[in-house]
Amino acid sequence: MSLYRNSAWFLKGLNEFTKGGFLSASKNFVEKDLETSVVGRSFLITGANSGIGKATAMAIAKKGGTIHMVCRNKDKAEEARAEIVKESGNKEIYVHILDLSETKKVWEFAESFKKKYKTLNVLINNAGCMVTKREENGEGLEKSFASNSLAVYILIKSLIPLLEKSPEPRVITVSSGGMLVQKLRTGNLQSQRGRYDGTMVYAQNKRQQVVMTEQFAKAHPNIHFSVMHPGWVDTPTIANAMPDFHSSMKERLRTPEQGADTVVWLAVSEAAVKNPSGRFFQDRQMVSAHLPLAWTHTSQLEDQKFMSVMEDLAKSFQPH
Q1: Which numeric CATH code is attached to 3-317?
Q2: pLDDT band for position 230 (50/70/90)?
Q3: Percent composition of the chain: helix, strand, coil (DSSP 3-state, to 5)
Q4: pLDDT band at residue 262, thresholds of 50, 70 and 90?
Q5: Nearest to 56 by CA among 122, 118, 114, 112
Q6: Where in the chain are the domains?
């Protein structure tokens, strides 16, 4: 990563990604955008038992939506579900246990969900995995890539038929501003070459999510796709994987509710879908997915090559 890219990103972050950045941006929010009922609409949210995912589930549950919480830990998921039901008064909250790093199980979950439920209005890819050293799952895939990229690809790919037959379908992926320092690198998707830096691998995965969103939007115009940056949020992922950043920035970090605000806006508001599909959002605004002069753009050909690699890899783990 270039010194320029790094410095430009951090200065932008201090100005925009913090709690102060949210409070400043929120002065331009249109409150009636979120004054809506979503009774009868269903929302699948990964990583819904803590942080941004839980705050998103809570906010949508309060608006009457049916929530499918996809979580790795059963006890934490059930505890979060009980809290959401109690606070929202909404009992249409369902827990599904899935480890997104287990690729075959992601396929199996998505295929069985499709058979069991007749509609899915909104898919929210929120779960994130950041590790400090390179690890592989039982299938030989690097864990961050398997969880953050391949699982997102498979969930979208498998659930598209269900989304397309549901009213006003949307797919929202929670990315990260860290991807602004990364250019898509299709040749090293599983971080087998070079020194392993978990933070940069995570940022690369988040760039991959942006490219996926752009490409899926072109291929499926009936679904509104979006990808967003929640800002720097005080979540368990950040606290565990980036302890120094977390402790030095703690007072400036956004709350999970502030981080979830744009996710909820993209999921429920009419205003959100007036924007073009496939774009990147921050604080309810469509913004560039690239820093000025940072040379992180890739060609359409490179982006299509990446999608082709993802397609082949996903298919190789698809149950027959």
Answers
A1: 3.40.50.720
A2: very high
A3: 55, 15, 35
A4: very high
A5: 122
A6: 3-317
CA pair distance 191, 195, nearest whole angstrom: 8
How does pLDDT run across 174-212, given as a tens digit for each residue?
Answer: 999 989 989 999 999 999 998 999 999 999 999 999 999
Collapsed DSSP state (helix, strand, coil) of residue 285: strand
With beta carbons less than 8 A apart as the criterion, state whether 105 and 167 touch. Answer: no
Give Cα 274 distance to the centre of its chain. 20
Q: By C-alpha distance, which of 241, 235, 242, 176 is closest to 51? A: 235
Token pair, residue 209, equals 């999510």
* pLDDT tier at 2, thresholds 50, 70, 90: low
Asked if residues 45 and 80 have their Cβ atoms less than 8 Å apart, the reply is no
Q: How far is CA 129 from CA 36, 135, 158, 218, 273, in A?
A: 32, 12, 21, 27, 28
Residue 202 falls in the annotated catalytic set? yes
For 119-133, the pLDDT digits (tens) are 999 999 999 999 889
Amino acid at the residue 166: S
108 Ramachandran zone, left/alpha/beta (phi>0; psi -120 to 50): alpha
Question: Distance (Å, rounded) from C-alpha 281 to C-alpha 270?
Answer: 15
Instruction: Give every CB contact of residue 220 below 8 A, 6+ residues apart in sequence.
Output: 160, 164
Q: Report which DSSP code applies to 120.
A: -
Residues 271 and 33: beta-carbon distance below 8 Å: yes
Q: Are 156 and 212 in contact (CB under 8 A)?
A: yes
Share of the chain above pLDDT 90, in %: 84
pLDDT digits (tens, 9 = 90+) for 71-87: 999 999 999 999 999 99
Catalytic residue, chosen from 94, 153, 196, 202, is 202
CB 126 within 8 A of CB 48: yes
Residues in the chain: 320
